[in-house]
Design a protein that fits this description.
Largest sheet: 8 strands, parallel, barrel
Shape: globular
Low-confidence stretches: 1-30
Pfam families: CBM_48, Pullul_strch_C, Pullulanase_N2
Family: Belongs to the glycosyl hydrolase 13 family.
Protein name: Pullulanase-type alpha-1,6-glucosidase
Strand content: 15-25%
Helix content: 10-25%
Distance between the termini: 70 Å
Keywords: Signal
Strand order of the largest sheet: 20-21-24-27-28-29-34-35
InterPro entries: GH (IPR017853), Glyco_hydro_13_N (IPR004193), Glyco_hydro_b (IPR013780), Ig-like_fold (IPR013783), Ig_E-set (IPR014756), Pullul_strch (IPR011839), Pullul_strch_C (IPR024561), Pullulanase_N2 (IPR040671)
Length: 905
């Protein structure tokens, strides 16, 4: 199967504008009209929303008679304008006024649909009808067939089964020496268990739609799958699917069979697991997070054990350079490691023998050559690399990261990784991707859709699976998909002691689903479950786009909607202001605060005139100020125009810059796995005259805007070491060559490893080619940047001024005293601490090349000194920063962030 492309996380600017334009063409609360011919059973434009109601796009013909036709053999077809085949018919009555208020609230996108009632006498066989093909027809009084379409059934399935099914325990359950395997398959005509060569019939519970089979203890550890006989709308036939368990807890290599495994078994626990002592929990508002890909961490680390490279066990190599660096970060104040997806991935061969490697000497080509990317792309579909945003089985560790993918070694080794990171002082966050699956329908990598076709995925008006996330969108608004999300996360928390979860495209989940996750995790206790669920942190991408945008189908888990929940969303506001422009700009040279806009201009005409640059820079500074407060909506300050504004009144591409209700609602970052690394973005944007030292200093300054903000901050692993992916904007499938972390500075930082892969980067090659041969940094810059960043982490971790609990605390203790019409372009001055607006800490971000003076008259006579950590720290340049007590003038070198603390008088 072709590799799936992970949709870039930065859904801003142009992409949002396009999405808005598309949505504007659709009436509020209504679904787009189905694009289908009236007689077309390949489409499903009717929706059976509950046991008594079918919703159908209005055709304006009051004389037509609507009928549901159900055929258990799935042989209904349209030929020569007639419906052929046999099936039970249920005549429907049109309901005057359409859907009820309650139904419109449940299905707002169907508000404009006509409503038809299923006669009470026909409701008795609804469950049976749903086990076959269901078609809706409309006929004229003369018998002319005007509509024949398939029927979406997720609504009625929830109505019939959800109340009981959501309370069922699915997957393998071990009790009293026996094993029970259960799967929800309400539309299946039959389900059999194929276990270790035997075929065992399963019993259906009619109230829940759950099929189960119970066997002896010898079933433990045995491979199994289900044989599900079911009507498949994509195949338009009754099929028997041989399929793994959606609730699998273990798998054979390449996920061909599930394994009946008891995760409580002592044999699956590494040494010290049951008495694992966690590092002290850090509240989300104070979390400093390193985002890390498991394979990137060690794939090319020569100091890791050879058999551990690219695997979970590399984290147990205490003497490797990568592990040593993580311990340095932990000692400085990093509290969490965020692992990119580590569940079972559909797009990586799990056996090393099946993994291909580039068939050329990648080191032999010039820094600006096309050959490296060509060689990497030739094997990308079958190499060992992928970011992992291609879910196959949600609750099993990925096999390619294990030293042996067969059996349960991946379980033990994942746990060993968690323990090793915890022992190093770091809690563990898992990146989870419940918003889509790698495949749907009858695809070999499809699981959910082979068991309950048309249920687990979100369907568009014509019945097609929505793919706005890049792949087959799931539908966590449907009860059993929502349950799967909750159950899976509880398993990761209880059985793998994961300390936090980051939701990919969280805005595609209902807010209610994410809150249900929070509630379920909060119920976990050390005494009962071995973990304190209330300490588990949650955050995600709250982007608003696609078929569910603007709460079209439910209240989404988006940035604005999650404010006040204690669940954070990534904030793109300050990120774009710091870097400049957006990731999809035609010209990547658009500058921002930390890349020289106005104060150190490059040659790009996209930046506009000096006056335009200055105006944009000052607005960027306002966006960064809002970010430094934790993106608080109600925080008031003086903007660069001299107006008193709230954070919500500062514009960000037509949306409010401030949306958070409390510190911890918004997560700050300057870069992440999506889009160019920070170093690569700055390579495109800084003037070509920038020295290696300049680049390193601007990197640290950009990172500081996130590190020293209120609320949590995330940094991509290696960014403190000037990590590059050779200008690759979307390295999800670019192999180790472009992605690997280089812990030894003598190996470089990853820049100049050839032109980035053509698929996502070729339009930028003309900009990239001259840079790849001219931009250079060495050990001096790499080590200096990393050390300076760790100093900032120490300050962040040790100063309460940066970790305020409430919006009121921030308003009272954080201020920007030099904001207004006279503020210095390229310089932001922050006061924090104390109860009167902040006199404990002063931070000056000087993004200009020149030394700048900032006079805070109100502080004249108050003693300040450079913060002791910087005064004794690694950055010699910042040590020249000074303060005049008599005048209140702070003097800061160019390209420097200086932190001052109040000293004894």
């Amino acid at each position: 199967m072709a590799q799936h492309r992970h949709r870039t996380a930065a859904v801003t600017g142009t992409v949002l504008a396009l999405a808005a334009a598309l949505l504007a063409a659709i009436p509020a609360g209504a679904a787009p009209p189905p694009d289908t011919a009236p007689l077309d059973l390949t489409k499903s434009t009717a929706q059976w929303i509950d046991h008594s109601t079918v919703a159908v796009p209005e055709d304006g013909d009051p004389a037509a008679t609507a009928t549901l036709v159900a055929d258990p053999e799935g042989e209904l077809a349209v030929r020569d304008g007639e419906l052929t085949g046999t099936g039970r018919k249920s005549v429907l009555r049109k309901i005057p006024g359409g859907l009820s208020a309650a139904q419109r609230a449940r299905f707002p996108h169907l508000s404009a649909y006509a409503a038809y009632e299923v006669a009470p006498k026909d409701r008795a066989h609804t469950a049976e009808d749903l086990t076959g093909q269901v078609v809706l027809t409309r006929q004229q009084p003369d018998g002319t067939l005007t509509t024949a379409t398939g029927v979406q059934t997720h609504g009625v399935l929830d109505d019939l089964y959800a109340s009981r099914a959501t309370r069922a325990t699915l997957g393998p359950v071990f009790r009293e020496g026996g094993v029970t395997l259960s799967v929800w398959a309400p539309t299946a005509r039959s389900v059999a268990l194929e276990l270790d060569g035997d075929r065992v019939p399963m019993r259906r519970d009619d109230a829940s739609g759950v099929w189960s089979a119970t066997g002896p203890e010898r079933w433990t550890g045995k491979p199994y799958r289900y044989a599900v006989k079911v009507f498949s709308p994509s195949a338009r036939a009754v099929v028997t699917n041989k399929v793994t368990d959606p609730y699998s807890l273990a798998l054979t290599a390449d996920s061909t069979r599930s394994l009946a495994v008891d995760l409580d078994a002592k044999t699956l626990a590494p040494k010290g697991w049951r008495n694992l002592k966690k590092p002290k929990a850090v509240p989300l508002r104070n979390a400093q997070i390193q985002e890390l890909h498991i394979r990137d961490f060690s794939a090319t680390d020569r100091t890791a054990k050879a058999r551990h490279r690219g695997t979970y066990l590399a984290f147990t190599d205490a003497r490797s350079k990568g592990t040593r660096h993580l311990r340095k970060l932990a000692a400085a104040g990093t509290s969490y490691v965020h692992l990119l997806p580590a569940f079972d991935i559909a797009t990586v061969p799990e056996r090393k023998a099946d993994q291909k490697t580039p068939g050329c000497d990648l080191t032999a080509y010039p820094a600006d050559s096309e050959k490296q990317q060509e060689c990497v792309a030739a094997v990308a579909a079958d190499d060992a690399y992928n970011w992992g945003y291609d879910p196959f089985h949600y609750t099993v560790p990925e096999g390619s990261y294990a030293t042996d993918p067969e059996g349960t070694r991946r379980t033990r080794e994942f746990r060993a990784m968690v323990k090793a990171l915890n022992d190093d002082g770091l809690r563990v966050v898992m990146d989870v991707v419940y918003n889509h699956t790698a495949a749907s329908g009858q695809d070999p990598k499809s699981v959910l859709d082979k068991i309950v076709p048309g249920y687990y995925h979100r369907l568009l008006a014509d019945g097609a699976v929505a793919t706005s996330t890049c792949c087959a969108n799931t539908a966590p608004e449907n009860a059993m998909m929502g349950k799967l999300v909750v159950d899976s996360l509880v398993t990761w928390a209880r059985q793998y002691k994961v300390d936090g979860f980051r939701f990919d495209l969280m805005g595609h989940h209902p807010k209610a689903n994410i809150l249900a996750v929070r509630k379920a995790l909060d119920a976990l206790t050390p005494a009962k479950d071995g973990v304190d669920g209330k300490r588990i942190i949650l955050y995600g991408e709250g982007w608003n786009f696609g078929e569910i945008a603007d709460d079209a189908r439910f209240v989404q888990a988006t940035q604005k909607n999650m404010a006040g929940t204690g669940i954070a969303t990534f904030s793109d506001r300050a990120r774009d202001a710091v870097r400049g422009g957006g990731p999809f700009d035609d010209d990547p040279g658009v500058q921002g605060f930390a890349s020289g806009l106005y104060t150190d201009p490059n040659s790009s005409k996209a930046n506009g005139t000096p006056a335009e640059q200055k105006a944009r820079l000052l607005h960027y500074q306002d966006l960064i100020k809002v970010g430094l407060t934790g993106n608080l909506a109600d925080y008031t300050f003086t903007d660069s125009a001299g107006r008193r504004v709230k954070g919500s009144e500062v514009d960000y591409n037509g949306a409010p810059a401030g949306y958070a209700a409390a510190p911890g609602d918004a997560l700050a970052y300057a870069d992440a796995h999506d889009n160019e690394t920070l170093f690569d973005a700055l390579a495109f944007k800084l003037p070509t005259t920038a020295t290696p030292a300049d680049r390193a200093r601007m990197q640290v300054l950009a990172m500081a805007t996130a590190t020293l903000s209120q609320g949590p901050a995330l940094s991509q692993a290696g960014t403190d070491r000037l990590r590059s992916k050779s200008l690759d904007r979307n390295s999800y499938d670019s192999g180790d060559w472009f992605n690997a972390l280089h812990w030894d500075c003598r190996d470089g930082n990853g820049f100049g490893r050839g032109l980035p892969p053509a698929a996502d980067n070729k339009p930028k090659w003309p900009y990239a080619k001259p840079l790849l041969t001219s931009v250079r940094v060495g050990c001096a810059e790499i080590e200096a940047a990393s050390a300076a960043y760790r100093d900032l982490l120490r300050i962040r971790a040790s100063e309460p001024a940066f970790g305020r609990r409430t919006a009121a605390d921030v308003q009272r203790t954080v201020s920007f005293p030099l904001s207004g019409p006279e503020e210095t372009p390229g310089v932001i001055t922050l006061r924090a601490g104390g109860s009167d607006g902040g006199d404990g800490i002063v931070v000056i971000f000087n993004a200009t090349p020149q030394t700048r003076q900032q006079r805070i008259g109100a502080l004249a006579g108050t003693a300040y000194t450079l913060h002791p950590i910087q005064a004794k720290g690694a950055d010699s340049t910042v040590k020249s920063a000074s303060y005049e007590k008599g005048s209140g003038i702070f003097t800061v070198p160019g390209r420097t962030v200086a932190v001052y603390s109040r000293s004894a008088p």
